[in-house]
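User: Design a sequence. Structure:
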């Protein structure tokens, strides 16, 4: 939903496709090295490292500003 919100202008589909590609690359690159890191640290230490790094995702998500008016239809109020 965030990518749809920030994709503005005449080429929304292109911006969305590029954003999806960048997001997929952000998952693929860490996944390539995770097996090697797990073998070096051991499973328990790797799990703790993963949990620690994932806390930053919650912090970043809390900092994202979303317009409260985004997604609301303009014009007539719904009936009923």
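Assistant: Done.
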């Amino acid at each position: 939903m965030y990518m749809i919100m920030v994709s503005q202008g005449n080429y929304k589909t292109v911006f969305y496709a590029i954003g999806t590609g960048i997001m997929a690359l952000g998952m693929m690159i860490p996944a390539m090295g995770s097996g090697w890191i797990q073998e070096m640290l051991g499973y328990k230490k790797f799990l703790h490292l993963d949990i620690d790094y994932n806390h930053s995702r919650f912090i970043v998500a809390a900092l994202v500003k979303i317009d409260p008016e985004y997604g609301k239809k303009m014009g007539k109020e719904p009936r009923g």
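The chain has a mean pLDDT of 82. The radius of gyration is 19 Å.
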